[in-house]
Structure formats: structure tokens, C-alpha cells
Design goal:
alpha/beta; eight-stranded parallel sheet; 12 helices; 8 strands; globular
């Protein structure tokens, strides 16, 4: 497929890339109706790019059947209202099967979670992503990069072999490293998505990102959209006003090595009566003593 054919997908990445939570019912199963309602709230709020089976969706705590279900629910509920970027990963056959399942349902892109393996070589990183990208040449492919050792030249090598690798979710917490990586890989060649959400979006946009991922958007779509509008217009003071608004919420999520990344988002949603607060191990619910602060922040956003 030509790069022209991926124009829609590229545009969708240069936006707020929402990572929906996966709500659980009292019996521990995926609460399907609540999930659909949360998706509708995002869509009604103006979100046009969704990543089911992302980290905020508890990708690693879902069974293969649940991951398929989440993909199916997202594509069915979304219809033509948004571009869907499905998270895939684990071993290569599992990732390929997930990517083909997403393609067959009508998804336009897949995001490839970083390989979870104690021994990741740079050439092996390329091999892993090439195997997945070549299995679904019709889909846009977005590697999720958290490996600070990976040089930009390796991404360029991957894209030489797989022209459907069109964007990058870059989640190394180092703005200078991001700027260098993007230029070594090809600044104009890929759509650069700030993969560490709103706290890093202003600094990463200044270095070439044009989209950012968000878990916070589940709680307050308007807040995330305000930030991207400010960044698109180059109004960094306005973007930093939003940054100040979301700072404490994101600090709570990032605390203790991001232990409560999903927990805080679900707690905020629970405080608004939108879903249950349950998360799966190895995540854990917030203790009662910390819930009021999250509820106060969510209420303060005038949702």
C-alpha cells in the first residue's frame, strides 16, 4: 500500500490518541455495556483516535479472549466515528493473530507493544516488528518504544523493510533523547506520538511530536483536547496552563514507578459514577485514604 493510502492513519496519530480503560464487572469479567458507554463518552467528547488493548486498558492482565472481545466491542461501537489503533503484542504468533483479527474487523492500525523479554537485541527488535508488520501490510503499524537503548537508525531500517510502519509511540522519558531519535530515524518520515501522555506532550511537541497518548482523556476529554489545540497552534503558555491543571493527577499516576497508572484513572471514573474502580493484579485499587484527592481533582475539571 502506498504512503498516500496511509494518509488517514497518519492524520489520526497526529491527535489525542485515547487509551480506553477496560471496566470489570463484579464477577471480574469485562463489563461490556459500561465499556461501550465509556467509548461513547470519548467519541461524544470529540476524540477521534482510540487504542483498545493499550496499557491503560490493562492489556497484560487480559486473556486472549478478552483482548479479542475488547477489539470487537471497540470497532462495533466506534463505526466510522474514529480511527481504531489496536494494541497487539506478546509472542510473534499471538501478535500476528491479534493484528489479523483487528484487520478483519475493520481496524486501520495496530500498535505493537514493546517486546516483553529479558533479552532484546537491537536487530531482534527489528525482526520482531518486521514479522508483525509484514503479516498485515494493509494496516498502519505503530511501534511502542520504551527502550532507551534503541537507536533511531533501527526504526529507519524497519520502515525500509515495512513501509506500513508509519508512526511511533515514543515513551522514553527523555525529551533530548526523543529529539535525537526522531531525527536519526527520519523526522518527516513518521508521525511522532508522545507516548508518555500530557505531562510530556509540550516538551515532545517542541521536538517534533504531533500527537500524544492519553489515559486522562477517559475522565476529562475536554482537558486533553484543550492541550492538543494549544500545542497545534504553538501556544506553549496555554498548553502549560493545561499542564498545571493535570499535574497532580498525573503525579499520582506516576508515583512508585507508575504503580497506580490505571488505578487513578479508574478511581476518577468511579468517583463520577462511570465505572467500577476494580483493577487486576499486579495493579491494585487505591486505599480509601487516597480516594478523596482523586475525586476532588476529577470534580474540579467540571466534567
Amino acid at each position: 500500500m502506498s504512503s498516500v493510502a496511509f494518509e488517514t492513519q497518519r492524520a489520526a496519530l497526529a491527535d489525542v490518541v485515547a487509551i480506553p480503560v477496560t471496566p470489570f464487572a463484579e464477577d471480574g469479567s469485562v463489563e461490556q455495556d459500561t465499556y461501550r458507554a465509556l467509548l461513547r463518552r470519548l467519541l461524544d467528547g470529540g476524540v477521534t483516535t482510540l487504542t483498545p488493548n493499550g496499557n491503560t486498558g490493562e492489556f497484560y492482565a487480559l486473556t486472549p479472549e478478552e483482548r479479542r472481545l475488547v477489539t470487537e466491542l471497540t470497532i462495533d461501537e466506534t463505526g466510522e466515528r474514529a480511527v481504531v489503533l489496536v494494541g497487539v503484542g506478546h509472542d510473534i504468533p499471538t501478535a500476528v493473530a491479534s493484528a489479523r483479527h483487528a484487520r478483519d474487523l475493520g481496524a486501520q492500525m495496530v500498535m505493537v507493544h514493546q517486546p516483553v523479554h529479558p533479552y532484546v537485541s537491537q536487530a531482534g527488535w527489528v525482526d520482531y516488528h518486521r514479522a508483525i508488520a509484514q503479516a498485515v501490510p494493509e494496516l498502519g503499524v505503530v511501534p511502542y518504544i520504551r527502550n532507551a537503548q534503541l537507536p533511531g537508525a533501527r526504526l529507519a531500517e524497519l520502515a525500509d523493510a515495512c513501509p506500513n510502519v508509519i508512526g511511533v509511540k515514543y515513551a522514553v522519558p527523555d525529551a533530548a533523547k526523543f529529539a535525537a531519535f526522531a531525527r536519526d530515524a527520519g523526522l518527516e518520515r513518521f508521525v511522532w506520538v508522545a507516548g508518555l501522555a500530557e505531562p510530556y506532550a509540550p516538551s515532545y511537541f517542541s521536538a517534533g511530536a504531533t500527537g500524544f497518548t492519553s489515559g486522562l482523556v477517559n475522565v476529562a476529554p475536554a482537558v486533553s483536547l484543550n492541550m492538543i489545540e494549544a500545542l497545534r497552534s504553538g501556544d506553549y503558555p496555554a498548553a502549560m496552563k493545561v499542564w498545571e491543571q493535570i499535574r497532580r493527577f498525573e503525579e499520582l499516576r506516576a508515583d512508585s514507578g507508575s504503580a497506580n497508572n490505571v488505578t487513578v484513572v479508574k478511581e476518577a471514573l468511579a468517583s463520577l459514577g462511570l465505572c467500577r474502580r476494580e483493577v487486576r493484579p499486579p495493579s491494585r485499587q487505591l486505599p480509601e485514604s487516597e480516594r478523596a484527592e482523586v475525586a476532588a481533582i476529577a470534580a474540579g475539571w467540571s466534567i
